[in-house]
Amino acid sequence: MSTDQTERAESLPSVPSIDDPRPQPPLTEHFNPGTATDPDVGARETSSLTVDGEEVSVGEEATIIDALEEVGADEDLSALCYYDREDTDRIGPRSECRTCMVETDEHGLVPSCSFPAEEGLTVRTDSTEAEEARSVNLDLVLSDHNLRCTTCGKNGRCELQDAAIEADVEVPRYGVFDDRDEYEPIDESSPFIQIDRNKCILCNRCVEACNDVQVEGVLRIEGSGPDTRIGFQNGADEMMDSTCVSCGHCATVCPTGSLVEQDYTDAATIPLPGFTQENSIGKTIGEDYDGQPNPATPMKGNQTYEDDALGEANDD
Ligand code: SF4
Ligand code: SF4
Ligand code: FES
After folding, report:
1. Helices and strands per DSSP (H, E), number in the chain
2. Using CA positions, which residue lies closest to atom 3 of ligand 1?
3. Are strands 186-187 and 284-285 parallel, antiparallel or unpaired?
4. What CA–CA distance (Å, rounded) separates 273 from 175?
């Protein structure tokens, strides 16, 4: 390179070479792609903004949804992939579902769960565009779900059901899972948790709960396109062959009936004798796990069911 060229190159703007100041999440390098490590998306400093004409101040790291919560404007938003409970701020936001869209004067439509609460922002939850975006996106989420609420163990405590009722959804414009495709067999292999992927909306909450909160590294989102699904990091086909320790956190945070505690799986809520989630959907898979001696799956700790059962029998 000539002296002229070197001088010209040095005078051009370039990205400075500095260390990434963001804290590195623990254990990330051991997790496979598809697991959760959320970027820091909140505001860098305290800010004041306007929500539906009302002024509100929020602290560092706040996103727009925090400002909405301050003024009670979040009640119109379902925010299905965002889980905000005490001590669980490591779950989301993932910006997967877009049911939390709001309109801003400055940036147009943005997902409120993951957009920083910038100083001076003017936010509208009630603009036509924002309401339409939330409605379309909720229907898109519903199109990934089978809506068999009356035979679902989560009936009455399901966030997707609440969202659909609050949004007055009568007929989802893109249909529901029942309209289109074949059912995936229900995974009932675990003594504690049932997985019904026909109800999964791929919100990623369970993956984060398992990997980032419990640090168990069991779940992942795998596949692509219409074949995207919840799977296991050890490549197991069923939960019983995964490394799950049956802590139940994934079922706690699941906003649908996709992950349900086994005690609730047959909690049919319409008064038809013998009509349960299993027989309304059809085929199920799984083994008889009566006598399962260990709350963790056999794969955890390289134990086998037979080894444990034998050990217990010998102790008697
Ligand atoms: S129950 Fe199993 S899969 Fe669910 S969060 Fe706990 S370890 Fe992970
Ligand atoms: S199983 Fe539940 S928590 Fe996990 S991605 Fe599906 S809907 Fe979300
Ligand atoms: S809650 Fe904001 S994108 Fe899902």
Report:
1. 8, 11
2. 244
3. parallel
4. 29
Ligand nearest to the CA of 195: 2
CA–CA distance, 112 with 109 (Å, rounded to integer): 9
pTM greater than 0.85 (yes/no): no
Does 206 contact ligand 2 (Cβ within 6 A)? yes
> What gap in Å lies between CA 29 and CA 2, rounded to an integer?
42
Q: Whose CA is nearest to atom 4 of ligand 2?
A: 206
Place of tokens 């059901």: 161
- Concatenated DSSP letters for 81-101? T----TT-TTS-----S-TTE
Q: Is 246 in the pocket of ligand 1 (CB under 6 A)?
A: yes
Helix (H, G, I), strand (E, B) or coil at 114: coil
Ligand nearest to the CA of 295: 1
Closest CA to 79 of 233, 224, 201: 201
Ligand positioned closest to the Cα atom of 198:
2
Quick check: 257 and 155 in contact, CB under 8 A? yes
Q: Which residues contact 112 (CB under 8 A, 6 or more apart)?
A: 63, 64, 65, 68, 74, 77, 79, 100, 101, 102, 123, 125
- The separation between CA 297 and the C-alpha centre of its own chain, rounded to angstroms, equals 23
Three-class DSSP category at 231: strand
pLDDT tens for the 316 residues of the chain, in order: 566 666 666 666 666 677 766 555 444 445 443 344 566 677 778 889 999 999 999 998 889 999 999 999 888 788 899 887 655 556 777 788 999 999 999 999 999 998 999 999 999 999 999 999 999 999 999 988 888 887 788 888 889 988 888 888 878 888 887 765 577 889 999 988 999 999 999 999 999 889 888 888 899 999 988 889 999 999 999 999 999 999 999 999 999 999 998 877 666 555 445 444 444 444 344 444 455 556 667 766 554 444 444 444 444 4
Q: Which two tokens stand for residue 110?
A: 């943005």
The binding-site residues of ligand 3, defined as CB within 6 angstroms of any ligand atom, are: 79-82, 93, 95-100, 111, 113
